[in-house]
Design a protein that fits this description.
Blueprint (H helix, E strand, L loop, with lengths): L5 H24 L21 H26 L2 H24 L23 H10 L1
Helix pairs in contact: 1-2, 2-3
């Protein structure tokens, strides 16, 4: 078996620490972990102003990491590369979903709490139409 060189070990550990730092940064800037004690100026349940930026950078990192792992898998055929590609790809897709849908300030009905900007395409909500007809 081949043993890794000292430089390879250094780079591997440095990358590991960089990924841990990136993960901690995302947790802190997204508002998942509070940076300070709660006060009245930030109501409960509001997102951090840096949440979208932190998640966007994290999603970009995972997308490029998934691309790199995929290209390594094509070149070497190692199973670890394809597993890294799948893991990073899942995080990239989840981050993209969060940026597109979860962070938006949709128009919600005060009465029902549902989003007003929904569409019936490609399926119609016939049950809602029946209830609306009965109410009229």
């Amino acid at each position: 078996t081949l043993t890794p060189a000292a430089l390879e070990t250094y780079f591997a550990r440095s990358l590991g620490f960089a990924l841990l730092a990136l993960g901690l940064t995302v947790l802190l800037l997204s508002g998942a972990l509070p940076l300070a004690a709660t006060d009245a100026s930030h109501p409960e349940g509001t997102a951090s102003p840096y949440a979208d930026a932190a998640v966007s950078v994290s999603a970009l990192h995972h997308a490029t990491s998934a691309f790199y792992c995929y290209s390594r898998w094509l070149h070497t055929g190692q199973t670890a590369s394809v597993m890294g590609c799948l893991g990073s790809g899942v995080f990239a897709v989840f981050g993209l979903w969060f940026v597109m849908f979860a962070g938006s300030k949709g128009r919600h009905s005060k009465r029902t709490g549902f989003d007003k900007d929904t569409s019936g395409f490609p399926f119609k909500n016939s049950e809602a139409y029946r209830k609306k007809k009965k109410g009229l």
